[in-house]
Amino acid sequence: MSNSTSFEVPQSFSNAQQQHQQLCNQIQFHNRQYYLLDDPQISDSEYDLLYRQLLAIEDIHPQLVTEQSPSQRVGGEPIKAFTSVKHAVPMFSLDNAFNQQDLVDFQRRIHDRLKQTDAIEFIAEPKMDGLAINIRYEQGNLVQATTRGDGISGEDVTHNIRTMHSVPLKLNSPDIPEILEVRGEVFITKKDFDFINQKQLANGDKAFANPRNAAAGTLRQLDPRITAKRRLSLYLYGWGEISADWQQPDTYLQTLQQFAEWGLPTNPETKAVIGAQGMDDYYQQLLARREALNYEIDGIVYKVNRIDWHAPLGFTAKFPRWAIARKFPAQEKWTDLLGIEIQVGRTGALTPVARLEPVEVGGVVVSNATLHNQDEIERKDVRVGDKVIVRRAGDVIPEIVGPVLSFRKSDLPKFVMPCRCPECGSEVIKDGDKAVYRCSGGLFCPAQRKRALHHFVSRKAMDIVGLGDKLIDQLCDLDLVKHPDNLYQLDVATLAGLERMAQKSAQKVVDAIEISKNTTLSRFIYALGIPEVGEVTAKNLANHFLTLEAIMQADTEALLSVDDVGEIVANQLQHFFAQPHNREVIKGLLDAGIHWPEITHPANTQPTTNSPFTGKVVVLTGTLHQGSRSEAKEKLEAVGAKVTGSISAKTDYLIAGEKAGSKLSKAEKLGVSILDEEQFMQMMETEHG
């Protein structure tokens, strides 16, 4: 391993001795926190730095190396609550490679020791981020399972391993050695980790910081019934004691394949590679696929494939010389949560964003991370002032995994979503039963400006031809239009001066804006972009209340009496019209000359036409050739049909054009009457006698 580090090793022996002792004490403390208490006080990368500093001092001053030095230890001490078991064969840890040059040096040392010149075949496998385990079988029966502990002795966790469905209780094969110890990594998949944390929080318990801590905490449960619910997994990577009379295969890979044939779980990602270049190729490939794996890994392990080379290569005091681990760049770091700010999106959704003390994660300096929504903040119990775990994988947006609770001050307040939009001051409301909080100032809010205008001018709303998305974006970027009523103040000279516009095209847009002033009440309501209010709801509101003023003044009870209006829609309507900003824009639109014909008939008046579709619920799907679906919808509504967008048991007719999709299949399952376009046209011409 390369001992190069930015740490400056003291040349004075007395100074080196003092710093060495300090590092020993620190590492011993953090080993206890990590291995025994499952309560780490520093991140993995910070621990690695301490350990490399210790090695650097011992490299310059080897006389400081003693049996008590952390560099001579394989792992942490076994906890006292479990029975301690001495391993028949020690469970060594691995030397680390931190770059490709370290792997080149690793291969060179093997060449030198074996007097080999040919490229060496290695077995490459993911370095699982879990807990090492030794499982002992006698005459094919599982008799004992122990954690690695300090490498010499571990804790007896047989009662917990027996709960794992992936671990055979008995191996049924005539060639099973009388004694067989297999070694591997107990871990929790990403999906199961999320499930476990949801259960923890639902029960009022502390969430686990990461899958490795969850696996460690689960294996150390005294009650196997708890372990059984935690969904532990296992992949084998080696072996311990094996009866001498067993004819072991010649290679490491063949041995793992033999384990798999016996029904023992092995990692399908395990692969043979040739030389240092092959090791690097595998590293790069798996690094690129890291996030796609359903479990956490923190690097790659490489082992010499030929087993007969292991003995001549031998061991150092703490590592096998025939194996090494290359770590991935750290994906998790700890830093301080300085504040939580609110960003307002184009739809008005409020997103909390964490402002962090800048920290480098995965090669990128991270200073902020999304917290998604209020529910997510509560689930993770993140508070301003916490020290938090920040994760960044590949090109994925950084996220906060959770707080480091051992650092929390007791008086940190919980985060509460603001009741006013930080962009425009409008009231913030929760979006129904969803986790989203949304600004209700849709017509006025700067954050929602472009989206609100795009919707306002669309074909089914005010239908202003020529005012496309790109032109609206220009108008907003130049601050020429802030709200929909500003559109009616545009003139030819202003528009002609914009990019890709000329006198003639500008005149056409101005003319289209003028034409749009003559509309209908339902179109106008739809154009306002009120959340949950679509075309059908807008039309029902117009036909029920007859005037815009009546809609704006309606209370909850009145709104709920409208067809298709439930509590969520009623709530959105009331909050939208209660905002002074929205009312100002609506007044500006009316002052600009927008008008519509007076609606004189009450909502319950039935059309005079006596059609087969009168009072029926109809759904349109597919492509029609004798007019568009919008035109067909207008014809149906004119004869008293209710046109909806989804199939249900209440649907009377599905009118299916060409390339009808899932709605046709659902209608067939529900027994809904299906009409093609010709049948529809014939029935439209028919009146009941």
Automatic annotation (TrEMBL):
InterPro entries linked: BRCT_dom, BRCT_dom_sf, DisA/LigA_HHH, DNA_ligase, DNA_ligase_AS, DNA_ligase_CS, DNAligase_adenylation, DNAligase_N
Metal-binding keyword on record: yes
GO MF entries: DNA ligase (NAD+) activity
BRCT domain boundaries: 608-689
Swiss-Prot/TrEMBL keywords: DNA damage, DNA repair, DNA replication, Ligase, Magnesium, Manganese, Metal-binding, NAD, Zinc
Enzyme Commission numbers on file: 6.5.1.2
Top-level division of the source organism's lineage: Bacteria
PROSITE patterns cross-referenced by the UniProt entry: BRCT, DNA_LIGASE_N1, DNA_LIGASE_N2
Active site positions: K127 (n6-amp-lysine intermediate)
Cofactor: Mg(2+); Mn(2+)
Binding site for Zn(2+): C421, C424, C445
Entry-linked Gene3D superfamilies: 5' to 3' exonuclease, C-terminal subdomain, 6.20.10.30, BRCT domain, DNA ligase/mRNA capping enzyme, Helix hairpin bin, Nucleic acid-binding proteins
Residues bound to NAD(+): D44, S45, E46, Y47, D48, S93, L94, E125, R148, E185, K303, K327
Chemical reaction(s) catalysed: NAD(+) + (deoxyribonucleotide)n-3'-hydroxyl + 5'-phospho-(deoxyribonucleotide)m = (deoxyribonucleotide)n+m + AMP + beta-nicotinamide D-nucleotide
Membership in a protein family: Belongs to the NAD-dependent DNA ligase family. LigA subfamily.
Physiological role: DNA ligase that catalyzes the formation of phosphodiester linkages between 5'-phosphoryl and 3'-hydroxyl groups in double-stranded DNA using NAD as a coenzyme and as the energy source for the reaction. It is essential for DNA replication and repair of damaged DNA.
Protein's name according to its UniProt entry: DNA ligase
Source organism (scientific name): Thiomicrorhabdus marina
Gene name for this UniProt entry: ligA
